[in-house]
Amino acid sequence: MREVFIAGVGMTPFGRFREVTIEDLGRRAILAALDDAGIGQAEVEVAYAGHARTGRLHGRENGVGQLCCWSAGIREIPIAGVGNFCASGSTALRETWIAVGSGLYDVGLALGVEQLSTRPEGGQPLTSDGMELEGELGFTPPAFFALAARRYLEATGVSPRVLAQVAVKNRRHAGLNANAQYRTPITIDEVLASPMVADPLTRLSCCPTSDGAAAAILVSADAARRLGCARLVRVLGSGLQSGGYLDEDLAHLDLDRRAARIAYEMAGVGPEDIDVAELHDAFTICEIIHYEDMGFCAQWEGAAMLASGDSALGGRLPVATSGGLLSRGHPLGATGIAQAVEVVTQLRGEAGARQVSGARTGLIHCVGGFIANDAASSAVHILGST
Amino acid sequence: MPLTPREPAPRIDDGLSAAPVFEIDDGIVRLHGSRCPRCGATAFPRRAVCIQCGGAPEPLRLSGAGTVHAWTLLANPPDGFAGARHYGCIDLDEGPRVLCILGDEQPHTGQRVQARPAAARRGALGFSFAAPDA
Lengths: 386, 134
Description:
The structure holds 2 protein chains of 2 kinds. Chain A is an alpha/beta fold.
């Protein structure tokens, strides 16, 4: 693998946009990323598109990448869709990195797009692909992570108020991000008083239903020189893992630990080197468990890391400076690339009021899907400034 | 045009897909799991290939007895369940883990439970876990 750089990023605001189509969302993100990189459509040599629910919701299991690229004026290149649960966008990023890093292509486009607001179940928890038997027995993603939360609270003696603090922190961060879905500050009492979904997770402890798209342009060093791309961020490491299905403690995810270890080793850095991170905070408890599984702190010390302010803007390792899944929003397939948009913006020093000063190394993490009581897919990427 | 004799269709069904995951026999819940004769790993539902060692598991009828590893109250269960339900992570005595609705009584971590016939989603015949004497 040769070195690969992110030369441009773009995204739509995240929210509920029933008046547009996935084609509109994808086109806007692609055009924004091309503009940011300062290149034209004809320079793009390969594209991967991450999307998770377009088959069931939009009758498009295939061809979302071709549709959005066509809409944005990109033609006659290899394009493939990437479906990998909540890690679909991260996996599209990884496939693009492999395509450019292998030397086969010099300029690649990674797209993530999703429109969930049109789903018929309204405010019911989103189901997870393939969990038919488990669904008959009561499974939903918030039910799974409520069990993890109860296990965590029982093991540590931590109060549900600490979990709620994740939602408060990420909402505060989102207030500084014009692309975030929810920006009005909330309090711990408001999080706890919102309607219960699965004890102890209330509605404000869960990520919202979101629409949106995000895109990134990946280039080789040669292409960056040839095209005059200057605001480069380096892809330092990438780890993608499937479940181990070992029925371990509910309060950690072993596939996340494996994906992180692989990404750290490839990048030649450790958790102590990470300056800013976007984790898969689909539910408040998730962010705390992910601190531990990413190695940001020891096991059972995630709640203390949160309470200390270390993971808030101004702290030692700000997490979810975008607002995270909880407040920036979580259009499944778009999330992984939106995380890259945020960390690239931070590493270029362009994050404005939410800038982490001196940020040089960032980590992004998505985990999604379920098989046999375990998560199905985890992706971790480490990015570095140049 | 002469009819050509039809080739017998290749048989790809190893019996696993059609096998019931559970049965209810005179009020007793029979959970159909499997056990690998090579490494001893157990599974529910039954598996064709052992996830631990790649061996060929044999059918194992599970007792339905287990222990609550964690539990919650679902205020907003999936469509097809009427009202709030307790939900838990049960470690069965023979080893497999199952995530399942629990009975109406308030559960607690470490509690001994037994699979009981109960209405599953949309009133379908299913099972839940409750205290053995409930």
